[in-house]
Predict the 3D structure of the following.
Amino acid sequence: MINKVVKDADTAIKDIQNGQTIMLGGFGLCGIPENCIQALLRKKVIDLTCISNNAGVDDFGIGLLLQQRQVKKMISSYVGENAEFERQLLSGELEVELIPQGTLATRCMAAGYGMPVIYSPAGVGTEVAIGKETRVFKGKEYLMEYAFDADFAIVKAWKGDTAGNLIYKSTARNFNPVMAMAGKITIAEVEILVPAGELDPDQIHTPGIYVHRIFQGNNYEKRIEQKTVRTK
Amino acid sequence: MINKVVKDADTAIKDIQNGQTIMLGGFGLCGIPENCIQALLRKKVIDLTCISNNAGVDDFGIGLLLQQRQVKKMISSYVGENAEFERQLLSGELEVELIPQGTLATRCMAAGYGMPVIYSPAGVGTEVAIGKETRVFKGKEYLMEYAFDADFAIVKAWKGDTAGNLIYKSTARNFNPVMAMAGKITIAEVEILVPAGELDPDQIHTPGIYVHRIFQGNNYEKRIEQKTVRTK
Amino acid sequence: MLDKNGIAKRIAKEVKDGMYVNLGIGIPTLVANYIPDGINVVLQSENGLLGMGPFPFEGEEDADLINAGKQTITTLAGSSIFDSAMSFGMIRAQKVDLTILGAMEVSENGDIANWKIPGKMVKGMGGAMDLVASAQNIIVAMQHVNKAGESKLLPNCTLPLTGVHCVKKIVTELAVIAVLENGGFQLLERAPGVSVAEIQAATAGKLIIEGDIPEMQL
Amino acid sequence: MLDKNGIAKRIAKEVKDGMYVNLGIGIPTLVANYIPDGINVVLQSENGLLGMGPFPFEGEEDADLINAGKQTITTLAGSSIFDSAMSFGMIRAQKVDLTILGAMEVSENGDIANWKIPGKMVKGMGGAMDLVASAQNIIVAMQHVNKAGESKLLPNCTLPLTGVHCVKKIVTELAVIAVLENGGFQLLERAPGVSVAEIQAATAGKLIIEGDIPEMQL
């Protein structure tokens, strides 16, 4: 089996260059690649285009990259809860492209499945449709949307093995599997890294062929955005 | 949770009508819905259009439906190993549409993902391309292929629960998950049926939303087509 | 006149046994509290979960288990988890039977605006455009008029659209209204103590009133 | 002149450390036997497996675990299983580095015919059309001439095509040949004991011979 293990986050992201396009897994702050974000902060790589469903919060997740002015453009479906984001957007320092969440996911999947475009019903008749080719199939209108073309995908999984196979935990799965398929180079950080052979082949969410580099992360904070509980 | 359990194979397929289109999971004889095929034989429903990667062998799998002249048309990628199939095809009793295997899988997936069409590179410049719309993206030519539209999908899984969640075993997975997503009505037969709550939500291959009816099958023969072994 | 919980309670009656349902943020989330015993429904959360359970008990919350509103939640017996592409795939393939969501405006031909106010900071559409473009049955839960006292049921939406010709029904603090296939708001039910005239006054779009309009049964 | 195992042995030298490889039925399957120790490759089987292992020991075969040739096989430490759509997805997205397959004819512009002979019973293309349409590196393993003694390396294929302009290299019992981007069969190596003249005589398409042609090292 091919060994995909690298030492740490800094090694994993060392060749990400200024101006490149990177995908980052996660939904809200759930399932985000915390260790690689820290390494990007240390590397101070700038002018990044980030494809990620959200943009973090002011002091966590992609919000940290925004604070250090490392992001040129965000491609997301929802960017609330972030004051610094708002400031940079209004001042023109930051570009943003908003994409319906399902279209975002499907454009990742398209890249991973070698589909050049997909047809999406989301946004038909809205400003999202402006400038896009439309087509009607069986009486329903669709927008033609292109597969993403990202230099790197950075994902977070729960368990991984040395061959790059990944298993996600609970709803921290979200965009991670589709982004893992979509990167020209895919970097995976995992909470638990095990030798090849310890994971059941039937239970792999992302086969190792999609993963170029894997490492075991540490000090996961896993911040909760909306703690909602009930009383016993 | 919604309960999807039906008594047996005969109950599960009871409303399949003459002339309908059904998908059957499996690759070769691996992962085929043996119990439902037997029930279709008992029901003697005819003029079926069957979408399945293969057509079974003379005395097993879909080959049994061919023997009883229940199939009007096969849509498959590979139909070797079947003398009765050949006889019916040459005599004009049976129609066959051959589709590249990846296109077959992707047209199922398209149906399950609400994509009206997908672009496939398979068959460009060959007789498969005849009559199809083609389009070039980034210098590569693709055929526009339509999502399948099947009345029923019949799949076989290893384990399932009463909510319709499915887990497949080994390469018996093959076409089953994509067909399960693609049927207007999806019928699943499983080797082991457990109460909802016994399967790990992270390990479900086919979420129950796609499955309309589930039952525990019995007497699985699981015939091996090419037994290849080595000596110790 | 209904409060938020009243609107949720009335919408809960639209939820039938065996349905897969997606609930948006706000009033729609409250609907889950009013689904009667014996009605088995499965809640879909578009971040990748079928079978959304209640909030966890204090101390049992799991950062890896949240809903589309980013709230900590739980799973149920029979739940399943999947990725974002499959989640929207099942929405697009119309496997989700009913979508309930909030709105800022609805037009009499079923257009909906609920994601953007010009001049205000844009947060993004999230999954809303996908949901309204795909769901076969969409019920909007909202206030009949906005804070300025203006009707939110309009001949045409004035805000940027989320989707076109998609809303099937609207439940407000005043009324239950069907959006007709060929346009128009058909008044179906009045909230307790609310008159047809009050509803008419609060509705800017074409309100169709046929026969006696019954009061809601809650 | 090479036998089938010799062809497989020569092709095995094209397999580099770290590659994901799809092997077709026939001679390509034999290639797995000749991959040197220390070269880590992962074999993909398009029915849904990465990390195909050897045949099982007698009595340990599992009907649920087969390869694309429907043979009973085994998994390895690090294997993964997936559905048919993902399998061809990874092929189409060019995650599989090398595809090795048999052919009935190859043309000098890289077209391949390997699925259908007019007048004979058609078995179907299986995954062949997907593989040749998507793989970035395709090596054909075949006999240089057919049973009737006719060359299988042609100016144009006469049989129905499987794919166009896709074959990069051909290994036969006589030679290793590159298919040039702008057309033409470039002779790279001779099989042991085979002369350039013999190869020329067996090649109907345009054979390009530049300089000294070395004998294969096996």
Observations:
- The first strand of chain D starts at residue 20 and ends at 23.
- The CA atoms of residues 58 and 72 of chain D lie 10 Å apart.
- The longest helix of chain D spans residues 4-12.
- The helical segments of chain D are 4-12, 27-31, 84-92, 128-134, 196-202.
